[in-house]
């Protein structure tokens, strides 16, 4: 799948640093910004070792999350985070590999004066998606699933352990 610079990435991306892979979207109201903030806190807790920990954000909303939008979003949390923006087919394939759920959900717009309200406009939607991340060791081996809401200190300790192996 291509990253935000258009460079095709594969499993070799997981070689070297400890990696946290998760699926989300930039207009997510809670899970994604919270996760990105927590990953930045993990890097901070790791100190100098934080440079050997990378966040990999796979958008589940390639329709709205252009490479430029995703890059700007990630940069507001961690300029070294990697964003992947693929075609709907690439996303579907990768999500199957990770057993990740995502689904477009139309939003019902509130009625305005003189209107009946709008339902399901293609322009107004959110994305339901799995919350949590996959932690890979330096050799690209999946070692841990970190559920959404796990303590930052616990994740930092897990990453520190993987970095020491």
Question: Can you give a write-up of this model?
Answer:
It is a single chain. The protein is α/β, with parallel strands linked by helices and 165 residues long. It has helices at 31-46, 67-75, 88-98, 152-164, and strands at residues 18-24, 53-59, 82-84, 102-106, 108-109, 118-119, 125-129, 132-136, 142-147. The strands form three sheets. The protein has a five-stranded mixed sheet with strand order 3-2-1-8-9. Strands 4-7 form a two-stranded antiparallel sheet. Helix 1 packs across helix 4 (152-164). The longest helix has 16 residues, at 31-46. The two termini are 29 Å apart.
The secondary-structure element order is: EHEHEHEEEEEEH
Q: DSSP helix count?
A: 4
* Major sheet size, sense and barrel closure: 5 strands, mixed
Determine the fraction of residues in helical runs and give it as a percent range. 25-40%
Assess the beta-strand content as a share of residues.
25-35%
Mean pLDDT: 92
Total beta strand runs? 9
Write a short abstract of this structure.
The chain is an alpha/beta fold. It is built from four helices and nine strands. It has helices at 31-46, 67-75, 88-98, 152-164; strands at residues 18-24, 53-59, 82-84, 102-106, 108-109, 118-119, 125-129, 132-136, 142-147.
């Amino acid at each position: 799948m291509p990253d935000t610079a258009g460079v095709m990435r594969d499993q070799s991306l997981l070689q070297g640093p400890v990696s946290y892979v998760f699926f989300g979207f930039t207009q997510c109201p809670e899970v994604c910004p919270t996760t990105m903030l927590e990953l930045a806190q993990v890097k901070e807790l790791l100190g100098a070792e934080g440079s050997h920990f990378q966040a990999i954000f796979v958008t589940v909303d390639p329709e709205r999350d252009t490479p430029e939008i995703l890059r700007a979003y990630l940069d507001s949390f961690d300029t070294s985070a990697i964003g992947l923006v693929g075609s709907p087919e690439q996303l579907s394939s990768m999500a199957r590999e990770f057993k990740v759920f995502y689904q477009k959900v139309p939003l019902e717009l509130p009625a305005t004066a003189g209107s009946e309200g709008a339902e399901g406009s293609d322009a107004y939607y959110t994305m339901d998606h799995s919350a949590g991340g996959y932690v890979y060791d330096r050799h690209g081996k999946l070692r841990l699933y970190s559920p959404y809401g796990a303590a930052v200190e616990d994740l930092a300790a897990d990453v520190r352990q993987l970095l020491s192996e």
